[in-house]
Each structure stands twice: as structure tokens, then as C-alpha cells.
Amino acid sequence: MKKNKSIGTVGMGLMGTSITACLLAWGHEVVAVSTDLYLEPVLRSNIFSFLDQLAGEGKLSDSPATLMNHLIITDDLSKLQGIGLVVECITEDIAEKQQLFTQLERLLARDAIIASNTSAIPISQLQFGMKYPGRLLGLHWAEPAHISKFMEVICGDHSELQYADELMSLATSWGKEPALVRKDIRGFISNRMMYAMIREGLSLVEQGYATVEDIDRACRNDLGQWMTFAGPFRFMDLTGLSAYLKVMEDLFPELSQAEQVPEFMKKLVSQGHNGLSTGAGFYTYTAETAANWERLFMKFSLEIRRLSDVYPQDVGDRLNHD
Fold first, then answer.
1. What is the mean pLDDT of the chain?
2. Which residues contact 268 (CB under 8 A, 6 or more apart)?
3. How does DSSP assign 14-57, residue by residue?
């Protein structure tokens, strides 16, 4: 796919607008489909602000205003006709996604790729009922999508490898360091790793070994200290495998293998505690502190992107690197 080739996005929530900004930033024309066209001024303002953030980081070849000229926002799905890649960013509902894919297959050419930004639904389930299931793959972004280098390309049972290869190449051209999930599995890579950690954290709190604050503090200052530089396998290489083998033998039998969500997590959600958006979750927030955490998360994301650019995944394999 040529750099300036048009790409479609469907769904203009937080992820959809951030994904759209990323695609614009890397030289694509974008046709963005939203069912809430009355929000177009707000959507354009949000996308412009994301591009402005990237401009401040020196990531744009054109001004945000110029790039915004390459964006069409519409509520007419037929405007996607002739487009070679459509990124679906709608709600996490299998039936709604499948209904959309049926509509897209009526509009798109046989070799056009449909990519779902699902974070957990197995791609094989989404392929069910499609006329050409081989061209549907997962394209899992992370928030904020226009900044993060994270991306997973996920193959379903019927996905054709040529489309996975094209998405991997495209993702690299968008400044990502994509990972390919070769066999379909619920949660893919990053979510399975994250939820394994979360399960153990919830278990430690529930059993009284540590508080929420203690666990956050420990993870920030250990895992958070090296994770951007090295993934878990590279880190074990850096620090010696034999010690990890011994710890695994002793620790694995004691780690949580719970299949049910802890009651205190269920209680938080049942009470309407959803984190920043409601002013309470594991922590409490005022409107001001919630806004401050959101602002700081974006600032941190930009700073961590700068750091990861200095230390890309293969940095240690390069000769004569300072």
C-alpha cells in the first residue's frame, strides 16, 4: 500500500480518533466513518490536538492544518468504496462487528483488508459468516494510539498470511514495532501478559499481603524501570537465566491460578466505580485530579516514546552504538 493511499476507519471514539490521527500523521488520506456526525467539530478538534502533539515531537512532515485537509468524516459507509484497508474501531460486541463486516464486504474489493481493533475477541469468531474471511485480521492498538509504538497483528484461523505481512509492513511505516500473533488466542499477547500480572496483584490485595498502593509502587519501580528497554525474555538474558529457573521452580506453584474475579473487584464495579470517569476506582479523584492524571498520562506517553525511540528493540544488535 502506498504511503498516501486512503485508509478507512469506522468508529470515532477515543481510540478511533487517535488511530485516525496516527494514519494522517504518516501520510495517509483517511475516510473516517462516524454515526454521530453532529460531533464532527469536536472530532476534528481532538484529531488536530493529537497531530499538534506529534508536531511538537518533530514527528510530522507537514503541518497539522495541512494533514487535516486529508481527512473526510462521514456517516456514509459507502464512502469507503475503493479503499484498500479499513480499520474497525467500534464497540466490543461480536454481533455488531460481524454486521459491520458484512456491510463492508459488499463495498470493498476482494483483496481489501479489514482490520479489527478488538482487544480480546478471538479473530476467528469475527471471521464467522464472512464471504472472504482470509482478509480479516486483528490490528490491536494501544492508547494513545498516535503515540504508542505498540501494535499487534493477529491472525484468525482463516487469515491469509499475505495480509498479515502487509499489515506488519504498514505498522512499521507508522512508527510502530509490531508483534505478529501467529495463532488466534483470546487476549492476544499483551493482554494475556497484563492480566496474568493483574490477577496476581488482585490476589495479593485480597489475601492481605499488600495494598493497592504498595503493588503499584513496586511495579512502577521494578517492572516499570526496565520494561521499555527490554521485554521479559531479553531481561532474563541480561540478568542470567539460571536464577530465574530456580525462582520459577519455587514460585510457580504458589502463584494465583484463580478462575474467578475477586469479589472486591466485582463490588467496585457494581457500585459504579469506574476510575477517573466516575471519580472513584482503586483510588479516588476530584474533577481536577482526574483531569491532571489524564494530562500527565499523555505527557508521560510522549516522553516514554522519546526514550523508546532512543532504545529500539534491536538497539543492542547494532555495532558501534554509543
1. 95
2. 281, 282
3. HHHHHHHHHHHHTT--EEEE-S-GGGHHHHHHHHHHHHHHHHHT
Task: Record the cell numbers describing residue 207, joined without a space.
Answer: 489475601
Name the grid cell of 316: 543492542
- Contact present, 113 and 135 (Cβ < 8 Å): yes
Grid coordinates representing 210 are 499488600
Strand-pairing partners, residue 73, are 32
Per-residue pLDDT tens over the stretch 153-187? 999 999 999 999 999 999 999 999 999 999 999 99
Q: Comparing C-alpha atoms, which of 136, 96, 140, 107 is closest to residue 31?
A: 107
Map grid coordinates 515531537 to a residue: 57
> Per residue, what are the HEC states of 101-168?
HHHHHHHCCCCCEEEECCCCCCHHHHHCCCCCHHHEEEEEECCCCCCCCCEEEECCCCCCHHHHHHHH
Contact 176, 149 (CB under 8 A): yes
Helix axes 190-206 and 212-221, enclosed angle (nearest 10): 140
Measure the CA–CA gap between 150 and 190, rounded to whole angstroms.
9
CB 190 within 8 A of CB 142: yes
